[in-house]
Amino acid sequence: MIKKFDKKDEESGSGSNPFQHLEKSAVLQEARIFNETPINPRRCLHILTKIIYLLNQGEHFGTTEATEAFFAMTRLFQSNDQTLRRMCYLTIKEMANISEDVIIVTSSLTKDMTGKEDVYRGPAIRALCRITDTTMLQAIERYMKQAIVDKVPSVSSSALVSSLHMVKMSYDVVKRWVNEAQEAASSDNVMVQYHALGLLYHLRKNDRLAVTKMLNKFTKSGLKSPFAHCMLIRIASKLLDETEGGHDSPLFDFIESCLRNKNEMVVYEAASAIVHMPNCTARELAPAVSVLQLFCSSPKAALRYAAVRTLNKVAMKHPSAVTACNLDLENLITDSNRSIATLAITTLLKTGSESSVDRLMKQISSFVSEISDEFKVVVVQAISALCQKYPRKHSVMMNFLSNMLRDDGGFDYKRAIVDCIISIIEENPESKETGLAHLCEFIEDCEHTVLATKILHLLGKEGPRTPQPSKYIRFIFNRVVLESEAVRAAAVSALAKFGAQNDDLLPSVLVLMQRCMMDSDDEVRDRATFYNNVLQQKQKALNAAYIFNGLSVSIPGLEKSLHQYTLDPSEKPFDIKSVPLATTPLTEHKTEMTPISSSKMPDKLTPSRQDIYQEQLAAIPEFQGLGPLFKSSEQVQLTEAETEYVVRSVKHTFARHMVFQFDCTNTLNDQLLQKVMVQMEPSESYEVIHYTPAANLAYSQPGSCYTLVRLPEDDPTAVSCTFSCTMKYLVRDCDPNTGEPDDDGYDDEYVLEDLEVTVADHIQKVLKPNFGAAWEEVGDEFEKEETFALASVRTLDEAVGNIISFLGMQPCERSDKVPENKNSHVLFLAGGFGGGHDVLVRARLALADGVTMQVTVRSSDETVVDIILASVG
Amino acid sequence: MDSTSPEPSLYTVKAVFILDNDGNRLLSKYYDPELYPSMKEQKIFESNIFNKTHKADNEIAFLEGMTIVYKSSIDLFFYVAGSAQENELMLMSVLNCLFESLSQILRKNVERRCLLDNMEGVLLVVDEIIDGGVILESDPQQVLQKVNYRADDNPLSEHSVAQVLQSAKEQIKWSILK
């Protein structure tokens, strides 16, 4: 008794773990008693537990020792101790991958799974399926089928779940058990129902008709299991999503009816499904929102969390639908679970009025340090959205963000804050200085190279134009002294921009540059030397070309051209103008939030769309002599959406030719089209020189055919043309089911809509980060100016949009945004015309009765100026 | 925004783990082979989760892109993790079932020492609740019935006496049979 007391005393200390000092070798040594006769169930049980515990702790077992222990363990099947047997099953499952020849226990397990002891049967099935491979599966197929329809729920469930695991491995075998699974689905047991439904869906999910039938059956029969109900809701909403079924479909009615289910799990699943449906109207959302509102006051934290998280999602698209819950959300602000509180506040920030912003921000800043990074990102995103909505609040937000920036946090969190500050700076000119100051402070102590370079770039762009540029120099030069190569190089580039734009700073910048020329890194030295020389010339045009507006060519294109150049050496120097220009990425404003889960998106440099087209076209022999691809247009629809054939066209512009790519889809399942081509009749002096037909166009498999057209050589101003298009092809009727075509076919044709080539197809968008400098660089040699009246246009916004889309040029300096309540606006556009000529357009717009526009065009080539003005007129 | 609903599937649970109050692993099961495939990653993940959850008993959190429901008892922490789109209440029902079943098996002594002493029972309970990520059973009574395991509260000394007697009996039987 005293001994026992001692032991207890010792164990109550920190290390009271019976497994603490386990040695793998000692345990394996002990495992020898498995071979003793008679079997001692207690001790064997304890040793098995130790083995599993060690495996679970990450102890590595070699194949030989694992196999040895496994074989010793097989002897334990002789014992009839229930727990010991069950532990054997567990050991088999744990060791299935590390031991050899595990299939040796197949017969023992098969015996247990078909035996009389119900306690053994389920677990034995699961262990057996874990060690079975495709070839062995055939042998136990009969038993599995029986087990699926067994009366004992645990046996049936085990068989169903194991079958589901095996679908990945041997789909064809498991598919044959569909009838048994069907029978199991009508079982009285809730879990069997659930598992059977899951297996059935998994086997049939590629057959939409079968899924529909299955849904019909089960939604009517009314399953008892809440899990099965949730599964049905998910299947139904997926089917709705795929078929784009309207919300009057019976499936939607089913999901809505689940909102009245007795079980909270099902109600929540249904509400969540409705909320996640695309294009839900406010009326359809209302019942879902009201059940979520009820959940908000639940005593269960998980339910409150689930409800507020879903409401948060609703608020992104339909803030007004959530307004009704504002009162309930207010109560959650002080929830002890910070995740719930954060979600409640960010939801309120989306739905609330401008007046409540200050209060909410204060509330959230009181505990922002306690929440996880994931939620901090949510908060930042909410703030970012808020700044777009209430620009006047930017000072509050900026303060808050700068505080957050000082806190600890991971890369994603910091990046979200920096992006948010940058977007505020861009939206609100008056917040620029405070924002830049915060960012300067941040890079003083920033461990993320990507963010530091990004901020330095921004400083270089915005800093020189602030009233006091000199104060940023110190921050930037500190980077040169303290940071890694990439940051130093970025800092040098930023410094150069200050020197180029501010004459009074130039001498100091030159001194700093000379110091950077001593840097230990090649890139930094190269940049410093280059900028130093450029700056010393003190020429505006040079500055503009080499410091403000860098290369605007596409990088893969440049690589290819250089490679080509090295392949056939010539006397001529390499012409940078032959390189295709970079397509400016479409700058969509991300009003929609990225979900918190997808923050791990890979940031890869993907080749641009144009580079992909270039590859595709280069593969066709007829198009190889055309030179580099200059521009590819957006896709143009040449047919109505719901017709027999769907044809879309992409216009590819080359130096002297154009290639029209027609992506055709055949939507008739009883036809096979062959030799498909699109015949084009030009209205101007364009000349069709070649057709490349698509050989085969089977049902719903898109194919492409091409038409090559030569641009008129004698008249460079003929930039626009209209083509009438007809698709010609050979039809072969075929069997809709097998796709087997008839032997002979007949010619047919299909008239498409006209295709237009406009001036925009000849202009590539080029972003000039500093438009003023570029404007000076081109000079006024070929400047022309004209005034137009746009009578039909009512607002400045509309006018700006029309001009941009008509000319296909890149708006610079954010001049595509017309400030509110203004009567005049200046739009800056930049582009590259075929042949490597830069084109710059300045359009002064004035709103009176209609819009009056004064267009000034500058380019390095006179014809280009004429073309632009002629096309505008 | 993830407007596409998640693929309907029975694979609900991504991981289950039980930690002690120092954040040490007592038992962990990972059901998604793509999620933290190496032991090192798993342990880092567990300690991250532990650090963020052990102070406040909040029941639910969203960490490392996963919904995690948890519960503590004396010196133990129970965690169930699922994907971000998963129905939180389903995960909760798994956690509740796990906790209820264990508390029955351990006769309400849900604490570290008792759990370790009855490790085999704990392993069997987890095995009956989740199989490869699929919820096998969510009713604690059913789980207990299937596991059919009783915590052993015989003191060690008594037990060894009984054991000796038992083995003596067996040995005699054996020799007679021979």
From TrEMBL, chain A:
Chain residue ranges for the region called Disordered: 1-21
Keyword Cytoplasm carried by entry: yes
GO biological process terms, semicolon-separated: protein transport; vesicle-mediated transport
UniProt-listed SUPFAM superfamilies: ARM repeat, Clathrin adaptor appendage domain, Subdomain of clathrin and coatomer appendage domain
Keyword NADP: no
Cellular component per GO, a single term: Golgi membrane
Pfam families: Adaptin_N (PF01602), Coatomer_g_Cpla (PF16381), COP-gamma_platf (PF08752)
Origin: domain of life: Eukaryota
InterPro entries: ARM-like, ARM-type_fold, Clathrin/coatomer_adapt-like_N, Clathrin_app_Ig-like_sf, Coatomer/calthrin_app_sub_C, Coatomer_g_Cpla, Coatomer_gsu, Coatomer_gsu_app_Ig-like_dom
Domain (Coatomer subunit gamma C-terminal): residue spans on this chain: 760-872
Membrane topology: Peripheral membrane protein
The entry's keywords: Cytoplasm, Cytoplasmic vesicle, ER-Golgi transport, Golgi apparatus, Membrane, Protein transport, Repeat, Transport
Composition skew (Basic and acidic residues), residue ranges: 1-11
Ranges for domain Coatomer gamma subunit appendage Ig-like subdomain: 612-758
Subcellular location field: Cytoplasm; Golgi apparatus membrane; Cytoplasmic vesicle, COPI-coated vesicle membrane
Domain Clathrin/coatomer adaptor adaptin-like N-terminal: 24-538
Assembly, per entry: Oligomeric complex.
Similarity comment text for this entry: Belongs to the COPG family.
Function in brief: The coatomer is a cytosolic protein complex that binds to dilysine motifs and reversibly associates with Golgi non-clathrin-coated vesicles, which further mediate biosynthetic protein transport from the ER, via the Golgi up to the trans Golgi network. Coatomer complex is required for budding from Golgi membranes, and is essential for the retrograde Golgi-to-ER transport of dilysine-tagged proteins.
Name listed for the protein in its UniProt record: Coatomer subunit gamma
Organism: Pagothenia borchgrevinki
From TrEMBL, chain B:
Domain AP complex mu/sigma subunit: residue ranges: 12-150
Location in or out of the cell: Cytoplasm; Golgi apparatus membrane; Cytoplasmic vesicle, COPI-coated vesicle membrane
Entry's Gene Ontology cellular component terms: COPI vesicle coat; Golgi membrane
Keyword Protein transport attributed: yes
Family note: Belongs to the adaptor complexes small subunit family.
Species assigned in the record: Pagothenia borchgrevinki (Bald rockcod)
Self-association state and partner proteins as the record states: Oligomeric complex that consists of at least the alpha, beta, beta', gamma, delta, epsilon and zeta subunits.
Membrane topology of the entry: Peripheral membrane protein
PANTHER family per UniProt: COATOMER SUBUNIT ZETA-2 (PTHR11043:SF4), ZETA-COAT PROTEIN (PTHR11043)
Protein name: Coatomer subunit zeta
Function: The coatomer is a cytosolic protein complex that binds to dilysine motifs and reversibly associates with Golgi non-clathrin-coated vesicles, which further mediate biosynthetic protein transport from the ER, via the Golgi up to the trans Golgi network. Coatomer complex is required for budding from Golgi membranes, and is essential for the retrograde Golgi-to-ER transport of dilysine-tagged proteins. The zeta subunit may be involved in regulating the coat assembly and, hence, the rate of biosynthetic protein transport due to its association-dissociation properties with the coatomer complex.
Any one of the GO BP annotations: protein transport
Gene3D superfamilies: 3.30.450.60
SUPFAM superfamilies from the UniProt entry: SNARE-like
